[in-house]
Amino acid sequence: MPVYQHNLKDKKIDFNTILDKVRVFAPATVANMICGFDILGFAVDEPGDEVKMYRVAEPGVRIRSIVGDGGRLPLGADRNTVSACVKMLLNDLGILQDIGVEIELIKHMPIGSGLGSSSASTVAGLFAINALLNNPLTKDELMPYCVEGERLACGHGHADNVAPALMGGITLVRGGADLDIVKIPVPKELYAGIVFPQVDVPTRDARQLIKEKVLLKDAVTQWGNIAGLVAGLFQEDYDLISRSMQDVIIEPSRAILIPEFYAMKEIALAHGALSFGISGSGPSVVAVSKGPEVAELVTTKIQDHLSANGIESFKYVSAVNVEGPKVLSFND
Ligand code: HSE
């Protein structure tokens, strides 16, 4: 069923079963999967964000603290995307005036990294409130609130980060008002080698660089690649995945924001990556690889190259995270 056809009118919340506290993790994501701008994405095991949520006596939703954001995120309940989305959900359930909730957000990844930082926080917050309320909503029902969080965070409601962050695995986004989120099978040996060069690229800015018009020949190449990638994922055909994960539309505009992009690409492909490109809107880059060894080698070589050029970086090597968000604890 399209995501927006769910409605919460018939949900009954049993106040006797609401929990006192919950601690939740939601994963980072690699949006676009190189060729599928705004429609494809996958979740990774690390990094990710945590939300601790507490039920309190005083009604309303408040942010208690944010750790790991360097003071950049707003604490006001209507401006912070986590609390704003939780408020929206409680309002639609008709219980915003009746329940008190306080939130601690613990960020384990930088803002503006291209790893779906805001999405991980939003998804963690919505997964946490659902857990606190004793899971009255399905993930499909939570999805529209996650998309709203993305709209608040960067001015555009693309779902290619929030969808895999919430659903886990690899997801395909189709439609707008009739949004479908489709899960795609995950080939067992598909690994991501991610390198985050220490520069800040806000998604808003990275989106402004993209040309509004594309040539038909480029569009044909790109939609062939998207279809080839989806087929390759279904068939576990790593060669087809490799040939298909190429971006002739967005990467040429955005690569200039990322230091050493084309040198990193050469290193990745020379050391066996299936494909290399920008993770989300950058500056993180991703070497999609068959097996962890290649991902490990490629990311090490890329980091060596960046260090030699005076650029600090973080790296993460991960299989595709098929679980999505999870409860870490009900006690702290
Ligand atoms: N699809 C988005 C973009 C992901 O590339 O701008 C970043 O949020």
TrEMBL record:
UniProt source species: Sphingobacterium litopenaei
Binding site for ATP: P110, I111, G112, S113, G114, L115, G116, S117, S118, S119, A120
Protein's recorded name: Homoserine kinase
Main location: cytoplasm
Family the UniProt entry places it in: Belongs to the GHMP kinase family. Homoserine kinase subfamily.
Pathway, per record: Amino-acid biosynthesis; L-threonine biosynthesis; L-threonine from L-aspartate: step 4/5
Reactions this protein catalyses: L-homoserine + ATP = O-phospho-L-homoserine + ADP + H(+)
GO terms assigned for molecular function: homoserine kinase activity
Enzyme Commission code: 2.7.1.39
Compartment(s) where it occurs, according to its Swiss-Prot or TrEMBL record: Cytoplasm
